């Protein structure tokens, strides 16, 4: 195909979930609740970590605050556009905006994968080498590891995006999802995508699968090295929240990206899980299973004056 004929498609049509207005209205309310809950929960965790001296000085909670920020970014890449499309008759997205959405989706998503791996290493050091924990996991090292996670996500996303924009798009333009992602977009290319698909599956699939294996290996190492039943119980309690977050995030990602880019009927639901639901659940998982975070949140609530005001009204 002549180069002058490439990129004829200037906008894509997103499939969305339904064409029935009443169903779309109900989904708008539901996903707006999800998105608002994501903001409230993650901002609350960031504010709690930043305001509490103990949490702010702890490597674990420093990483948790960064995870909350990534969750906010990740959800914001797709959810606002999804909410707007629930109110639109035709769900259009310009080509340039589609590529930008695709770039940030993989940028933030890969950065979160790397950060979750860093958090597993942090727990491994804390439990296996408690006396040297603060020395090994210094604030300087934590900042370097967080920056490396962002850089790794950027490099991964740049590679994926460059491979995508080099493809010619001349129709059809119906993206079989509610956002622009590599699997449904490159299927619309007017070219043989076998090699590109192989490279992308190798890239995305390798990152998600290898990170997941490293995470499981870290937690297995923790359990193997701890001999006592009481120690294992405490380790499971400490790592349980991490394992739930890892499973919720990595499971869907491996399902979507670690296989050839063929379409399954459950792909949209799986995409909702890791794009919308997981960023909302992460704050709940970490706070409900963590007494230190709940105590710090109570202190923040009291310092804000809202807690005292409420108790004063109850006494009256």
- CATH C-level class: Mainly Alpha
Helix percent reads: over 70%
Structural class: mainly alpha
Number of E-state strands: 3
Subcellular location: Cell membrane; Membrane
Function: Putative odorant or sperm cell receptor.
Domain G-protein coupled receptors family 1 profile: 41-286
GO molecular function: G protein-coupled receptor activity; olfactory receptor activity
Structural descriptors:
316 residues, globular, disordered N terminus, mainly alpha, 3-stranded mixed beta sheet
Tell me about this structure.
This protein is mostly helical. The chain has one domain (3-315): Rhodopsin 7-helix transmembrane proteins (Rhopdopsin 7-helix transmembrane proteins, Up-down Bundle). Helix content is 76%, strand content 3%. The chain has 12 helices and 3 strands. It has a 3-stranded mixed beta sheet with strand order 2-1-3. Helix 1 runs antiparallel to helix 3 (59-86). It holds the Pfam family 7tm_4. Keywords: Cell membrane, G-protein coupled receptor, Membrane, Olfaction, Receptor, Sensory transduction, Transducer, Transmembrane, Transmembrane helix. The chain crosses the membrane at residues 27-49, 99-121, 141-159, 236-257, 269-288.
